[in-house]
Amino acid sequence: MTEEESRLYEKAVRLAASAHKGQVDKGGTDYIRHPLAVASMLEDGRDRIAAVLHDVVEDTKVTLEELAREFPPDIVEAVRLLTRQPGPDFTYRGYLEEIRKNPMARRVKMADLAHNMDLGRISHPGPEDYARRERYRKSMIFLRQDKEKTMELQAIHHVAVIVSDYRKSRHFYVDLLGFEVIRENFRKERGDYKLDLKLGDCELEIFGIPDSPPRPSYPEACGLRHLAFRVENIEETIAWLNGLGIATEPVRTDEFTGKKMTFFKDPDGLPLELHE
After folding, report:
1. Known catalytic residue: 58?
2. What is the pTM of this model?
3. Distance CA 276, CA 262 (A)
4. Cα torsion angle, 108, 114, 117, 119, sign
């Protein structure tokens, strides 16, 4: 978050905590924990602010006019869209359609639904809870429509391999097999080399990490290091994965390419990377 976003986030937390005071969720937990949990699932600072505020107009006496005096228009607009206002013309589908048109509101709603799908918040879930979770699941699918290209895995971005002898492997891949060298960097703080290669449309990363143990040692062992997937929008894909119950690491920036990246794992613990 920027300094300004941090200031607004703290203000949003104070406002939401006061507005939701005395309210509890279906599991009997202080309600403020829900918007805070939703905010924690998002990467963008402004998204987090909207997430903290997403229920204050619908469930408390706070008004949009009051929010507009304290928060930027884009955040207030997202909260407006996230606020259900039942009336003769209200439909839940129409509500979701409007949210789907606003990227910030859609990301917050996806995280909101994902958190609400967690029945671990309820000590003894019953049939109505499972039915509600199914409705939430269908809502997430609806919100993904027309946006799937920004969420789905599009292609393998690269394959990374740790090698025991960097010079020998460099000679093998570059001189013998004809891989093109994209970039080569010595990572002084680690004392190893990182070599980015290309063959056709495929990229290969070679890590010359000293004293790497042989397989099946984990994680820095000779052999396949991780599998990376190219995505168009990393925040959208994270929201999708989190909605499926798949945990992701915090987003960080690749020190050499400047692109956003993060990791998650397959069921066996193999590191899988998302890379814009």
Report:
1. yes
2. 0.60
3. 10
4. negative
**235, part of any domain:** no
Domain boundary among the residues 117, 149, 181 is at 149
Contact 275, 233 (CB under 8 A): no
Active-site position among 4, 10, 58, 134: 58
The closest of 28, 24, 8, 16 to 61, measured between CA atoms, is: 16
What Cα–Cα distance (Å) separates residue 264 from each residue in 187, 221, 227, 268?
Answer: 24, 18, 10, 11
End of a domain among 149, 173, 191? 149
Evaluate whether residue 240 is within a structural domain: no
5, 25, 43, 59: which is the annotated catalytic residue?
59
Judge if 136 and 165 occupy the same domain: no
CATH of the domain at 251: 3.10.180.10
Give, for all 276 residues of the chain, the pLDDT tens digit. 899 999 999 999 999 999 999 999 877 889 999 999 999 989 899 999 999 999 999 999 999 999 999 999 999 999 999 999 878 888 989 999 999 999 999 999 999 998 888 877 777 878 887 888 888 888 888 888 765 555 567 788 888 888 888 888 888 888 877 889 999 999 888 888 899 999 888 898 988 887 777 666 666 777 777 878 888 889 888 988 887 778 899 999 988 888 999 998 876 677 889 888
Q: How many domains does the chain have?
A: 2
Q: CB of 264 within 8 A of CB of 254?
A: no
Is 59 labeled as catalytic in the residue annotation? yes
Helices 92-100 and 103-116 pack at an angle, to 10 degrees, of 130
In this structure, are residues 8 and 71 in contact, taking their beta carbons and an 8 Å threshold?
A: yes
Domain of residue 35, residue span: 3-149
